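Dear colleague,

Thank you for sharing your sequence with our group. We've completed the structure prediction you requested, and as agreed, I am returning the results in plain text so they can be pasted directly into your records. Please verify that the sequence below matches your submission; if there's any discrepancy, let me know and we will rerun it promptly.
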Amino acid sequence: MDVLRMLLVLWGAVTLVLIVALIYRSALETREEDQIFLDPAGDAMANEQRALVARIEKLGRPIAALWVLSGGILAVIAGVWVWRGFQNF
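Please find the predicted structure tokens below.
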């Protein structure tokens, strides 16, 4: 397997993980509510919302890292493709 094909497989895997993480974050965000719980009975719901927001915020860095990694691999793929084009010219 040549380098370009391996890079394409790697990029596909990283991008697939990125898409799954984005879908997971989106699913969490649909359960997030924009409410203020004022009475003590709502404390359990407020704690659930805090935990949900913490999970959403925790996904921020890995998703950003996956975006950068996917873009970087794509740039390397483009560079290899152009380099091979110049080599065969």
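Summary note from our side: The radius of gyration is 21 Å.

Kind regards,
the structure core
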